[in-house]
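Re: that chain you flagged

S.,

Sorry for the slow reply, it's been a week of failed gels. I finally had a moment to sit down with the sequence you sent. For the record, here it is as I used it:
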Amino acid sequence: MASALLLDLYPQIRLAHIGFVAASGTLFTARAIATMAGARWSASRAARRASWLIDTGLLAAALLLLHVLQLNPFVVPWLAAKLALLLVYIGLGTMALRRARSTASRLAWSIAALACFGMMVSIARAHDPLGILRTWLG
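Prediction finished late last night. Pasting the structure tokens below so you have them in one place:
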């Protein structure tokens, strides 16, 4: 059972999680644009560290939320979908920021990563594994 203190802190933990999601998406977008423009800062140690710090905070907040709400991401369908898409997003982001060589391929990988990111947000808001697709599919 989640401790009373953590339960009391649920709104703050949720807000931190949402803030880290926004920061993570914003930083990825900025780094992707900068990478395509040839800016060196996007691959700098500082940019990578900022990304690691934000993503670590995001993961910590997510794990706290799972604990407080007593949810198992492997059993709850919408959480399982988010977790699977997180792995896809990491792969797409790696391609966009590090592996792809041409601007066109970086753009394609970046768009795919941002679409994946958007789908994760959609799933989280809807608490449905299909997210916004549920609305479109009827």
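What I noticed first: The chain has a mean pLDDT of 96.

Talk soon,
D.
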